Amino acid sequence: xxxxxxxxxxxxxxxxxxxxxxxxxxxxxxxxxxxxxxxxxxxxxxxxxxxxxxxxxxxxxxxxxxxxxxxxxxxxxxxxxxxxxxxxxxxxxxx
Amino acid sequence: xxxxxxxxxxxxxxxxxxxxxxxxxxxxxxxxxxxxxxxxxxxxxxxxxxxxxxxxxxxxxxxxxxxxxxxxxxxxxxxxxxxxxxxxxxxxxxxxxxxxxxxxxxxxxxxxxxxxxxxxxxxxxxxxxxxxxxxxxxxxxxxxxxxxxxxxxxxxxxxxxxxxxxxxxxxxxxxxxxxxxxxxxxxxxxxxxxxxxxxxxxxxxxxxxxxxxxxxxxxxxxxxxxxxxxxxxxxxxxxxxxxxxxxxxxxxxxxxxxxxxxxxxxxxxxxxxxxxxxxxxxxxxxxxxxxxxxxxxxxxxxxxxxxxxxxxxxxxxxxxxxxxxxxxxxxxxxxxxxxxxxxxxxxxxxxxxxxxxxxxxxxxxxxxxxxxxxxxxxxxxxxxxxxxxxxxxxxxxxxxxxxxxxxxxxxxxxxxxxxxxxxxxxxxxxxxxxxxxxxxxxxxxxxxxxxxxxxxxxxxxxxxxxxxxxxxxxxxxxxxxxxxxxxxxxxxx
Lengths: 95, 493
Description:
heterodimer; A: two-stranded antiparallel sheet; 3 helices; 2 strands; 35% helix; 4% strand; B: alpha/beta; Amidase signature (AS) enzymes; eleven-stranded mixed β-sheet; 11 strands
């Protein structure tokens, strides 16, 4: 098995997803199965091949560095689970 | 008069013009159908008031003889992945609880500007991740089709996914058409499973702005309709350049409907030999062979082509798509919108929110994406997959130097029962074996119903075209549609 429970724990923390202890082993099994299946790509010789990040055969367009939107604070905050005085509110970060 | 809910967009457009019925009557008939088919669970949110209001506005325009477009007064459904101003938008995820956008996605705004009437927001796989519409927080969608024979008689079948609610709504006559999105097959595979037409346009044809992102280099919106002509009409209304999406193609739109000339004499149709995979259902091969004959009879030249890296497309996709998803879904943090589950610290709050808010398949994909992008594995997995993606794209480019269009099956099977393949992610991923390569290459693909299998379930055929050549795709699809003459309806109608 390519992925053990410690690795799952580590990537779950990187992704900030709470995973219960009893889920670590099943997830390790499922993810290992998928990663092992993906390993077949190593059969292919890709030396000298350019990696493809986008299929759009175009250069990204430039735009004017100008303000085109704004003054919509209430709209931005409308869906926030918690906000105060025009700001998003989060648990205390700095002691 | 024909039942209003069985009309195509093209027929309804003509009926509205001739004042045989009003947009309000058309919309009311579809609202009745929507309310009568709730057991399919095709909708997450129904918006009958919005629909009736927009239909009344359409009637005013139609009364003056100045409709906005061929879509004016046409009742459609919107996949719940498109942000809709003032209407709950969920992506079928718990983590977007209560999210009511203050803006409208470009695609749904374009449809609205064309006069289309929104009936509601359709169910889907959570964040469009799935091929059976069984990962939605809002429950499974049922396929309106039932098997008339075989092992699945009497069972509820999946509609395919991820655009399963859209597919079920169109197939059952609730909506005249629906928007879908396709990242690896999410328009074409459900279209095949429900006997309708599904078109994934070229990457860049439709703006991604305001559509909940899954894998940004692959996601593309497209129409799901009853006929090929309707797909052309609806694509016309959805597509177009949008400065708010930097990958949106800045090019003029052709008149898609006029591409349907019915004449494909001399056209070269490629048949990729690698798509004849081992262990494929013989009925799929049979319908594919029939499709080849139909196009040959219509005057096309059939050419065997090779796409050698086909078998590596799925594993490539399952690196690229989860990697992009893990980045895109980082925004669901319990701060700006949706669900928040409190925690001691900010990190705790993030972890609790994301642990509770995402379903099992979404978590699995985020974890895989995080793994393949993590230090020490980035080159071995992610860069490797991007290199293979180049090879897959080059295969298609090479094939299109000798042919104009490719013909393949859409999916390796007909619709299966709810619960089947549920415990085996890779078996589920194989549903998209014929659609994923096209997505990786950014090419347009269309699925249309070609016939029924022995169990009475629809089977689709897929056509794949050159980039930004939806016209040829639609032209060939129109010919195939005429030859197939698929008039079956779910429920043996």
